[in-house]
Every structure is written in structure tokens, then in C-alpha cells.
Amino acid sequence: MDVTREITLPVDPDAAWEAVTDLERWLLTEDSSALELEPGSEAELTLRDGETRWATVEEVRAGEHLSFWWHAPGALATLVEVTLEVVSDGTRIVVVESGYAGEPVCGSPWAGGAQPGPRARSAAAATASPSFELGRAWVLSVADWEPALERLRRCADAVGV
Amino acid sequence: MISDGTQAQAVFAALADPTRRAVLRSVASGEASTATELAAHLPVSRQAVAKHLALLERARLVDAQRAGREVRFQATPGPLGEAIEWMESVGTQWDERLAALARAIDKP
Question: Residues of B numbered 5-64 whose beta carbons fall under 8 angstroms of chain A's beta carbons: which are they?
């Protein structure tokens, strides 16, 4: 399963990228640790909504794409991908958060039994090395999810759960 | 539960595997309710089915009841609704973050 959200900003991609990568301006509190935008860099972040996440940068393509793995204490790791697209009225920012299927594997103090390593990512993705593709295949697509859910609902109704 | 998403993530992790989804479907449809019956329906060993059932039980998607020497499983769909609710709350959080980004653009 993944969550996708987007917004179109009335600015060119350079200005949009500058704003997106200045995480303290929209995602983090002012006193949060900074996340250096280099692949593999890690930090414990404090989000504006009060949550704490351990994050590891996955990929940075200036002006186009930023992705990082993150996880809350005791929770599974997810991949956040922020992509910029030029549109007629400005720049569209698309955020996809996915990968609700793997234990965190990283240097995070909350990674539980996972071996400390240089990069936080989900175990599902890590076992799919060298590519993340297999890891992504673990993520349920909506197409898989809906029929399964519908069957369960029908079954639940039938047995009066 | 909904705020930290641990339970919802257990549900997604449990459903991420196609064999586990097949096990859950068989239990939910009433086709099979024991590990032995499930192994007869599906192209996996009884031992593998037992592991999948244990994971589904941990995610609270099935409920196990001991009847003599047998353990019978029943689908319990409640956590699915909670998981969907949590996914929606994750989406709402991103809406709020992106709105903050738009405000940051307005006021450089």
C-alpha cells in the first residue's frame, strides 16, 4: 500500500526545489536535527506535527527528486519519494510514501533486532538488494488490496462479525 | 493504535505476501479453517501454512481456537478497517505538510 499526495506550486522548479529541500520551512521543527541531503546521511528528525522519525537519505537528483527512508520508534520503515514535475501553472510536487512491509535495517536506536548498518531502509527492500524492485513488489497494490478487502467484508457480513 | 500505525503496519506486512493473502482468503471464505485443510487447498506445505497463520494471527487478522487436537482459524477483519483509517491519516498528514510548503513559498 502506498499513500500519494500532490500539490502544485506557482513557481519554477528551481524555486520549488529550494523550498522542498529547506525541510525546516515545511516539514521539520526549527530545533530538529538537520538532514543533510546526501545519499546515506542519517538524522533523528522532529516533525512539525510532533512526531519523531529516524531518516536516511536514499537518492537526491537536484531539481527533480528527493527520497528517504524513515521510521518512527518501533514502527516499520517506509520510503518517502518527493518528485518535482514542470506543469503549465508552475511545479507539481508529488509525494509517495510506500513500503509498509519491512522492519527497519539501519543505525537507528529504534531498529530493534536489526543489525546496525549504514543505511535505514526496510528489510523487505534490503533483502531485494541490489535493486529495490523486489522490495517494492512486497508493497500491496490497491488492485490487490481492494478485492481482498471486499471478500473479507462480504465474509464478515455473512458470518455476522 | 492509529496514531503510531504499528498495528496497521503489521496488517500491511501480513498482507504483503501473496501466499498469506491466499491463506487469509481461504479462511475468510470458509473453504478451510485448519493448517491441514489449508495445505490441501494451497500449493504449500502444512508447515509453511502454519507460519503464515502465526503471522496473520499476530496481525489480528485471524483468530485461533483450539478444539481438541486441532486449531481452527477464523478471519477477523476488524484490523483492516483500522489499517485503512491509519492510511487515511497518513495522507492527511501529507496534505498538511504540503500546505505548509505552499505557505513557505508564499512567504519566502
Answer: 5-6, 8-9, 12-13, 15-17, 21, 24-25, 28-30
Taking an 8 Å cut-off on Cβ atoms, the answer to whether A155 and B95 are in contact is: no
CA distance B8 to B2: 7
ipTM score of complex: 0.71
User: Nearest CA to B5 among A121, A94, A77?
Assistant: A77
Q: Is A61 on the interface with B (CB under 8 A)?
A: no
Question: How far, in Å, CA of A49 to CA of A102, rounded?
Answer: 24
Contact B98 A93 (CB under 8 A): yes
B15-47 pLDDT, tens digit per residue, is 877 888 889 888 988 888 999 999 999 999 999
Give all domains of chain A, ordered by start, each with its CATH number: 2-159 (3.30.530.20)
Distance CA A26, CA A97 (A): 17
Beta pairing, strands A42-46 & A52-61: antiparallel
CATH topology of domain B6-106: Arc Repressor Mutant, subunit A (1.10.10)
**pTM (2 decimals)?**
0.71
Contacts of A153 in chain B (CB under 8 A): 77
The residue type of B83 is A
Chain A, chain B: beta-carbon pairs less than 8 Å apart? 108
